[in-house]
Specification:
Chain B: This is SCO6045-like C-terminal domain-containing protein. Chain A has nine helices and twelve strands. By secondary structure, chain A is an alpha/beta fold. Classes of the chains: A alpha/beta (268), B mainly alpha (107).
């Protein structure tokens, strides 16, 4: 079964709801499932759905790579949001967000070992059973790496897709971050992925402090991230590309210009 | 507990609760990640409790960071409940300061 073509979109956030509604060239949006109630849905999302704009539900807290069991209430909430917005698909990350009774509040990388892959596969399969629509999984930005990787990040994701039939959400800003911080080669990473399973792409801004690139979603999209997008687009025509902005919101014109820059790369 | 569960818990303790850096990790990167997680948590705090950020002004960051390092967020606890605990910690701290000041006056 294929997924719909989504086009170019932007992450819907309550702080910029009116901006998202009136920006030109928004073909689809994504909502952070943890930040909304499915009933009642925020009015702005109902307005967008009323116009026929597809809404993807994106989750950050399922901790699918955690060794501890996934909290079924979090999966149920994602499923409820997906149904409320009639999402064509949902997405999460290849990450864990807590262990030993503590919550990290943000995505942490997995060891790229067979053991960790087995755990991830088990959790993804369980989540898929409780989700009403296909699940896409995203590569994260990491500042640190586990010491004992057995697989490259690309191979790790490729095997995840083979074993769970999930889709891929490739975040090119995260890939740029890992290239800067961990020495990941973007070309090799992309070559290793089954890009026929690409659901959509994330683009975001960040900032470099010293040797490290921080994927902040609070700064402009740097040209290097658009270059990685271009590298991806030279291999496959992505079904969707979405701009994520989570803080320090700029004037509408800047977001419109970033969307236009993305569209220019995609249609090159 | 599986090996993976134990290793994930060890890394999380190092990142959130000043635990030792697990074997094989780059200590500089563990520190950088810990700082990034703390900054994210502080950002969420400032957004959810603008009242606390406004009242504390320049003191918000050092006070929040001190509290956060001693009180990593427990699994299953909402950000709001977590920040209520921060607010109670601030109140208790102020009460102690007031007591100290009035104690000085009595001396």
């Amino acid at each position: 079964m294929g997924l719909p073509t989504l086009g170019v979109g932007i992450g819907w956030r309550s702080e910029i709801d009116l901006t998202v509604e009136r920006l030109p060239g928004v073909d689809f949006v994504e909502v952070l499932a943890e930040n909304v109630s499915p009933d009642p849905l925020p009015e702005s999302l109902r307005v967008l759905r009323g116009r026929g704009v597809p809404v993807v539900a994106h989750a950050v807290s399922l901790s699918l790579g955690g060794a501890e069991p996934v909290d079924p209430r979090r999966v149920a909430h994602l499923a409820a949001v997906a149904e409320a917005v009639d999402a064509p698909l949902v997405s999460e990350h290849v990450a864990f967000t807590g262990a030993g009774g503590l919550d990290s509040g943000h995505l942490l990388p997995l060891p790229r070992t067979r053991e960790a892959l087995d755990v991830l596969v088990r959790n993804v399969r369980a989540a898929q059973q409780d989700l009403p629509v296909p699940l896409a999984l995203e590569n994260i930005a990491a500042l640190l790496e586990w010491p004992d990787g057995e697989l490259s990040e690309g191979r790790f994701l490729a095997e995840l897709v083979e074993r769970t039939d999930c889709w891929l959400l490739v975040d090119v800003a995260n890939l740029h971050a890992n290239a800067t911080n961990l020495g990941t080669e973007p070309g090799r990473f992309l070559d290793e992925l089954p890009l026929e399973r690409l659901a959509y792409v994330h683009v975001a801004g960040g900032v470099r402090h010293g040797d490290l690139y921080h994927d902040t979603h609070a700064h402009a999209v740097p040209p290097e991230v658009l270059e990685v997008l271009g590298e991806l687009c030279s291999r496959v025509s992505p079904p969707g590309v979405l701009l994520e902005r989570d803080d320090a919101y700029p004037p509408d014109a800047e977001l419109a210009a970033e969307l236009a820059a993305i569209r220019a790369v995609v249609s090159r | 507990m599986t090996d993976l569960a134990a290793r994930q818990a060890e890394l999380v303790r190092a990142l959130l609760a000043d635990g030792p850096v697990p074997a094989g990790f780059d200590p500089d990167r563990v520190r950088a990640e810990a700082a990034a997680l703390l900054a994210k948590r502080r950002g969420v705090a400032a957004r959810l409790r603008p009242d606390l950020a406004a009242t504390l002004g320049d003191r918000f960051r050092p006070l929040f960071d001190t509290w956060a390092r001693e009180n990593p967020r427990r699994a299953g606890e909402s950000f709001r409940a977590d920040l209520d605990a921060f607010a109670r910690w601030l109140q208790e701290r102020e009460r102690q300061e007031r007591e100290r000041r009035s104690g000085h006056r009595l001396d």
